[in-house]
Design brief:
- By secondary structure, the chain is mostly helical.
- Helix content is about 80%, strand content about 0%.
- It has a 3-stranded antiparallel β-sheet with strand order 1-2-3, with no helix packed on it.
- It is elongated.
């Protein structure tokens, strides 16, 4: 809200403090009627009990109104101008106080007041110097300059609001960055947990392998001792890993807590405190403005209380508090859910490992029972001992888990206590702010009430020249301008709400864009992986294709060689290399038949005859084969002419050749079956011997591998021991830091308790000031003849009575010349000193404005 500053030089004369409440009663005053006139019973002359001299002292015959009808319009104009001047001056004071409170953090700049401007013989009539009104041109110039200053200050406040919104956006971005860092740390801790689980599973598999090798070699006793040693060492390593994971989780939580406290203590708290101070100061000044509007509206019988700016601000603050409480509650639920999830994951991993261990043990026992039947009882006893040791280890692990859970519960309890203390600290801060706010509100109410009474008693007489119509018209014009300004302020509030909504929508859109970007990155990574897989498959297919081409070339060369050996060159040249395989198969069949016939026929004659017959048959068969091959070639050419692809033909040819070769191989295998049957017995015996040799070699290699793994595990054990020592040192450092944080928290609690005591003292002071305000109001009401004990008298009723007193005094000024002449000496005394003090009063160094017409008038005097 725009306001103006009014210095002591520009301000109108004020009542001295305690001028009405502490003034002794006058002997001549007896009664106070409803019209506000006090009658002296000695001479029955009415006069007004006020602190200013009558207006007729400064009024000449030319200044007095000629008639009520002629001066009605000018009276209304002057009244409106007077009301507008009052409102501008008060708004100027509000604005300057708000700027100084925001800049320096003080309770507000108070306009210096002068207790007792003049010395008078009668305390009920302290006269004050009347400032002469500036000319009409000076008033318009003053109003124009005031409007320009109002627009400039409004632009400055808008820029400041935009800057605060930008700072709020920056703080939100910082919070988002810190949340991302916390998520990264959580993923790192999760990866550490997964690595620990993998190492435990690897240790278990190595343990199973060592046991199997020891059972096969027969050194069960030695392996048992080694196994116990390795089990103990691995258990220690597992414990060390668990301790390391717990320490890393503690460090992560400690860092999160420190990060949150750091943000809340430095950046976030500073911004929130500044914003709350601005809101409180704006609420106090808006309330002051609303009270002034209602009082002026009651004076002119208008209802200006339609508007609930403080209610809206209270609803907004209540909503923010509820949102903060829900946020803290959801964070607590999230932490509990993450802890439950981690515990369930650990339990599932442990159960999975036990299941795999049991499965491996069952398989090993079955193999041992099938291979070694003589040592079943001993192995069974060893197995029972191993099971007992495993149960003991499980019990020990359970005990360790229970200890870890108890320590986690203790840590949770301490964390809850710390959160409770932080909540108490926040509540104490809120109480402190509310107490400060109430103190400021009470102080501002006291000042506004005193200023309203002083303005009603002094301002109209010195500036308006005692014309009621002008004053009323001016009040109406000022009220119209105040309504316009109120409408403008409501429009600005609506704009602020719309801007906040737009900011929230922009934040939501930004979060959605971030989520979409993450999804797009995941899709891109998936596509890259698929592309790499497809490229690998393509390269493998290219390699296979090259291999098939080389195999095909070798196969064709083999067919050519076979054709030369079997004397099928001419047929191959005629038919082509596509049907070489069929021709070779047919030629091989002919040779087989020829060999069978040659073995059966023993005589040379029969052999010659059969050879001739066979030659004829071979020629006939070769011709038939040649015809068949030519037919097939013709069919293939026809198919090629019909539009078959070369790749399909090659595939068909390759499949046909493969089938023919398979048939040939099957036939040859049938011929070689008898010879293989004869050699199977000898090969079986030889195979048994070779199998035994291979087994012994494999066992030796496996034993060497296990020894190498044992050496590697020992080296890993040494490295992990060094890491454990480093982690212990880090744990000690974290414990020292936690102790320091506890000391700091205790110090903060003590400081807050001291602040609470100071706030209680401030509240007592506020109560005392409120009591003084109530006493002051009761004195004024009692002097005006109002029953404040039986009826609830509002402020506007008191102001209306004072208005009646002022109007009655103006109307009866002509009949009270004797009283005015009696007060001449009292008025002149102290007037020059007061003017000199007003001219030399201190001014605020922050203001740089042009001199108003009233101030210029005083300077010329």
């Amino acid at each position: 809200m725009t306001s103006y500053r009014l210095t002591d030089k520009d301000s109108l004369p004020r009542l001295p403090r305690g001028g009405l409440s502490s003034a002794p009663p006058r002997a001549g005053l007896q009664t106070l009627d409803d019209s506000g006139l006090v009658y002296d019973l000695g001479n029955e002359r009415p006069f007004l009990a006020r602190s200013t001299p009558p207006a007729s002292l400064y009024r000449t015959a030319a200044d007095r109104p000629a008639s009520p009808g002629a001066s009605g319009q000018t009276w209304r104009l002057m009244q409106e101008m007077q009301e507008q001047l009052k409102l501008y001056k008060k708004e100027l004071e509000k604005k300057d106080d708000l700027i100084t409170s925001l800049a320096t953090g003080s309770k507000g700049h108070e306009t210096p007041k002068i207790n007792g401007y003049f010395s008078s013989g009668d305390p009920a009539y302290p006269p004050q110097p009347p400032p002469q009104p500036p000319p009409t041109g000076g008033r318009t110039l003053h109003y124009r300059m005031a409007a320009e200053s109002v627009t400039g200050e409004l632009a400055a406040m808008q820029v400041k609001a935009e800057r605060l919104q930008a700072e709020l956006g920056e703080t939100k971005n910082r919070c988002a960055i810190k949340d991302v860092q916390i998520r990264d740390l959580e993923t790192e801790v999760q990866s550490y947990k997964e690595d620990n689980a993998r190492q435990v599973a690897l240790v278990q598999t190595l343990r199973n392998r060592i046991r199997e090798m020891d059972d096969e070699t027969g050194t069960l006793s030695v392996v048992k001792g080694r196994g116990e040693i390795t089990i103990q060492a691995l258990q220690k390593e597992v414990r060390e890993y668990q301790d390391r994971v717990a320490e890393l989780e503690g460090r992560l939580r400690f860092k999160e807590r420190r990060h949150v406290t750091f943000l809340t203590d430095q950046n976030f708290r500073s911004h929130i405190n500044e914003r709350e101070g601005a809101e409180q100061s704006s609420q106090s000044w808006e309330r002051k403005y609303r009270d002034l509007c209602t009082e002026v509206g009651r004076c002119i019988n208008l209802d200006t209380a339609a508007g609930s700016i403080p209610d809206v601000i209270e609803k907004v603050t209540h909503k923010i508090n509820t949102i903060l409480e829900e946020n803290t509650m959801l964070r607590g639920r999230l932490s509990t859910l993450t802890e439950a999830l981690n515990s369930s994951e650990l339990e599932t991993k442990a159960s999975r490992e036990t299941i795999m261990r049991l499965v491996s043990e069952v398989g090993r026992e079955q193999r041992n029972l099938s291979q070694i039947n003589t040592s079943t009882e001993q192995l069974r006893m060893d197995r029972e001992e191993a099971i007992r040791s495993k149960e003991a280890l499980v019990r020990e692990n359970q005990l360790l888990r229970e200890r870890i859970e108890s320590s986690e519960k203790a840590w949770k309890s301490t964390r809850d206590e710390l959160e409770h203390r932080e909540g108490r600290v926040q509540t104490m801060d809120e109480k402190l702010r509310t107490s400060q706010y109430t103190a400021k509100a009470a102080q501002t109410q006291l000042d506004t009430f005193k200023q309203a009474i002083a303005s009603l008693l002094s301002d109209g007489h010195h500036i308006v020249h005692e014309r009621e119509d002008d004053i009323k018209d001016r009040i109406r014009s000022i009220m119209g301008s105040s309504r316009d300004k109120q409408a403008e302020s409501e429009m600005l509030d609506l704009k602020v709400k719309e801007l906040t909504k737009q900011l929230e929508s922009q934040c939501e859109l930004h979060q959605q864009a971030i989520r979409r970007a993450k999804k797009a990155e995941a899709h891109v990574n998936d596509f890259k992986e698929r592309l790499s897989n497809m490229e690998g498959e393509l390269s493998s297919s290219d390699v296979l294709r090259d291999g098939l081409r080389t195999d095909k070339q070798r196969y064709l060369e083999f067919l050519e060689k076979m054709a030369r050996v079997m004397k099928l060159d001419e047929i191959a040249l005629d038919v082509g290399f596509d049907l070489n395989g069929d021709a070779l198969v047919a030629r091989a069949q002919q040779l087989v038949h020829m060999e069978g016939d040659s073995l059966k026929d023993r005589t040379t004659h029969v052999y010659n005859l059969q050879r001739k017959v066979k030659q004829q048959k071979e020629q006939l068969e070769s011709k038939d084969l040649h015809m068949d091959l030519l037919r097939k070639k013709i069919g293939q050419l026809e198919e090629k002419l019909q539009g078959r692809n070369e790749l399909a033909l090659e595939r068909d040819d390759a499949s046909m050749k493969i089938r023919k070769l398979q048939k040939q191989v099957e036939r040859l295998q049938g011929q070689l079956g008898n010879a293989r049957a004869m050699n199977t017995e000898l090969k079986a015996k030889l195979q048994e011997v070779t199998d035994l040799k291979v087994r012994t070699l494999q066992q030796k290699d496996h034993i060497k591998e296990q020894e190498d793994e044992l050496l590697r595990l020992r080296l890993m054990k040494e490295k992990l021991g060094k890491k454990v020592s480093n982690l212990k040192s880090e744990m000690q450092m974290t414990e020292a830091e936690s102790e320091e944080t506890k000391v700091l928290s205790s110090n903060t609690v003590q400081a807050l308790s001291n602040e609470l005591r100071s706030t209680k003292l401030a509240l007592d002071e506020v109560a005392r000031r409120e009591k003084e305000l109530v006493d002051f109001r009761q004195v004024i009401a009692r002097m005006l003849g109002l029953e404040i004990h039986t009826l609830a008298v509002p402020n506007y009723e008191i102001i209306a009575r004072l208005e009646k007193l002022v109007n009655a005094h103006h109307s009866h000024a002509a009949t009270t010349l004797g009283v005015e002449t009696a007060l001449d000496d009292q008025f002149v005394e102290g007037y020059v000193d007061a003017r000199r003090f007003l001219k030399t009063s201190p001014r605020s160094p922050r203001r740089a404005r042009s001199v108003s017409p009233t101030r210029r008038y005083y300077q010329t005097q």
